[in-house]
Amino acid sequence: MTENLLPSHSVSEYMDLWELMLEVEDGNPLVKVSALYPGKAFIMWYLWARQLIKFSFDNLDELKDITDSLEKFQYKIIRTETTDNMALVLPESKFDGELDIWDISTSNNCLELPPATFEDGRGIFRIAGFDEKSISSFVSKVVSGAQVKILHKRRLPLNVLRSSLWTSSVLSSFSPRQAESLIKAQEMGYYNTPRRVTTGEVAKYMKLGRSTFEDHLRKAENILVNSFVPYLNLFNSNRGKDFHHQTLSNTPLEIK
Fold first, then answer.
1. Do 138 and 223 share a domain, yes or no?
2. pLDDT category of residue 52 using cuts at 50, 70 and 90
3. Separation of alpha carbons 247 and 157, rounded Å
4. Peptide bond into 194 cis (omega under 30)
């Protein structure tokens, strides 16, 4: 009979979950590009040597200006796709002198949680680690390579891995106009019962045409609903159970 060498405890007794958020002020060309376009967010998904960059643009002249700036900072663009004043840019590879958050995180047993956001000359990254030692090792390596500011470091319960809504991934999906339209509609009472304003009144306040405003609002609502409903479904399927205090018990990650 094979002896079980694993301790008869669940993983949750040994594994911690740590979240780290850091701000990078150099070491990445998107930091420099974002500084050229104040108030515009550049969203980057990154896997190994491949990147995907997303940003909004007001017109074709601005789109060309931004892609020219990306190439100026050594991004060789393979493909650009546009829809609804949003652009997705696929560069050939990462910049040779770039601070490689992905490689540093994986070599220190951590995970980079995409996407990273670049705005006003700074980049925001989120990192997950499963023990404090790994997070500390990551911090020591990344701080030595660039101007980095730790925004927060916190320990999280393990059950967020399957029940928590990673808000930054959702928020970064909104264009500035979509976010502004949703926020102003809520502030002015559009979502009150009964409604205090019409879409035309909110549009007039924002100095937008009604159809333009309604288009921004509908897209923002779609992002919010499509992002949140899967988590609502998960919660609803566990209604009546002690959902908020579940650990990894009875999941494939438990070792007994």
1. no
2. confident
3. 8
4. yes
Q: What domain range includes position 229?
A: 171-245
Domain count for the chain: 2
Whether residue 26 contacts residue 146, with contact meaning beta carbons closer than 8 Å, is answered with: yes
d(CA 41, CA 115): 12
- Alpha-carbon radius of gyration of the chain: 22
The reply to whether 74 falls in a domain is: yes
Residue range 85-115, pLDDT digits in tens: 888 888 876 555 566 777 788 778 888 887 8
DSSP for 213-240 reads: HHHHHHHHHHHHHHHHHHHHHHHHHTTT
Of 57, 29, 26, 28, nearest in space to 41 by CA: 57
In a domain, 254, yes or no: no
Question: pTM of the prediction?
Answer: 0.56
Dump pLDDT digits (tens) for 129-175: 878 888 888 888 877 656 788 888 888 766 555 444 455 556 667 88
Q: How many Å apart are CA 249 and CA 92, to the nearest integer?
A: 44
From the number of C-beta atoms within 10 Å of its C-beta (0-12, 13-18, 19+), residue 95 rates as: middle
How far lies 65's CA from each of 37, 41, 72, 90, 174, in Å?
A: 10, 15, 10, 16, 22
Residue with tokens 């670049």, as numbered in its chain: 118
Q: Are residues 133 and 44 located together in one domain of the fold?
A: yes
